Amino acid sequence: MLSTERTDYIATNDIAQDNTQAVQDAYGFRWNVERFHRETKQLTGLKDCQYRKARIVRNHVACAILVWVRLKQVANETNKTVYLLKHGLLDDYLRQQLKSSAIQMTFA
Known about the structure:
By secondary structure, the protein is mainly α. It has one domain. Helices cover 59% and strands 0% of the residues. It contains four helices and no strands. The longest helix is centred in the middle third of the chain and has 25 residues. The protein is elongated.
């Protein structure tokens, strides 16, 4: 059983800050940014970028962000996580191929 009576500690280096709600809001925003970075790296191939030219890297990042935006839209529409969507993309295809493969894997 989880307790709802807990103490959350939040640290800040802003000495003038005296509003705990403002600090919590800032941390909430930071968490969303961290989640965005994690999801784009893990789900869109952003971490696998091996390009060196700035233009190609910029195009790769832009495409990755567009993919993430679409995944997020579909996830919200279907009430699924972006991880379930990404990892389930080929499920139907794999099931169909396991039942009746288009390419025979036996040697004559």
